[in-house]
Write a structure and sequence with these properties.
Blueprint lengths: L2 H9 L12 E5 L11 E5 H8 L12 H4 L5 H13 L4 H9 L4 H14 L17 E3 L3 E2 L6 E2 L4 E2 L3 E2 L5 E6 L2 E6 L3 E3 L1
Antiparallel strand pairs: 1-2, 3-6, 3-10, 4-5, 7-8, 8-9
Helix pairs in contact: 4-6
Length: 187
């Protein structure tokens, strides 16, 4: 029996996160300990797209985690934990996260997947920055090695990414320089 058929049968042909029955696909949970059916979940297209692109999170859609976090399947619990962590600025999500009990090995698995997301540059609001994005500086930043200060509100157009996810590169006042990503806001 294939992984896909095992997962579909386990899930009862419903999204294991929101219970939708449309546009279902098997999703391999990142940073899983193995490549078996126990590391895959059945999700609808809406859940999959929001799992993969944190910028599109529909907070009300994820209230479904109130039910799915109690699943008997560890892989579903891990995905519920990850999504609740992403939404933890919402009071209801933090309350659910506080109620969720996971064994230590499941927490490690869930946290590994969250760490994989951290190696991407993010602005002050946690939005992932990509090459070519335009950003605005949110506070006055002194430039190391000079008396220059990048003023709050300065627009930096067409940023480039660097090897360090904490920094982006862009032109300010005609000079190319590195800027700390957390002091930027994506336009």
């Amino acid at each position: 029996m294939s992984i896909e058929s095992i997962v579909k049968q386990r899930a009862g042909h419903k999204c294991e996160l929101c219970s939708s029955t449309e546009d279902l696909n098997v999703y391999a949970v990142p940073a899983s300990p193995d490549a078996t059916a126990a590391s895959n979940i059945l999700v609808c297209e809406k859940c999959r797209s929001e799992i993969e692109d944190a910028e599109t999170l529909d907070q009300n859609h994820w209230r479904c985690l109130n039910d799915s976090m109690w699943s008997q399947e560890p892989v579903v619990q891990v995905m519920a934990y990850r999504m609740l962590k992403r939404l933890s600025s919402e009071t209801w999500a933090q309350d659910l996260l506080d109620m969720l009990y996971l064994e230590e090995d499941k927490i490690e698995w869930a946290e590994k997947g969250l760490l994989a997301d951290e190696d991407k540059p993010r602005d002050v609001n946690g939005v992932e920055l990509k090459k070519g994005d335009d950003v605005t500086i949110i506070k006055d930043l002194p430039v190391k090695g000079s008396s220059m200060v990048i003023k709050q509100g300065t627009a930096v157009r067409g940023i480039n990414l660097t090897d360090d996810p904490k920094h982006v590169q862009g032109k300010v006042n005609g000079q190319t320089m590195f800027i700390i990503a957390e002091f930027c806001r994506k336009k």
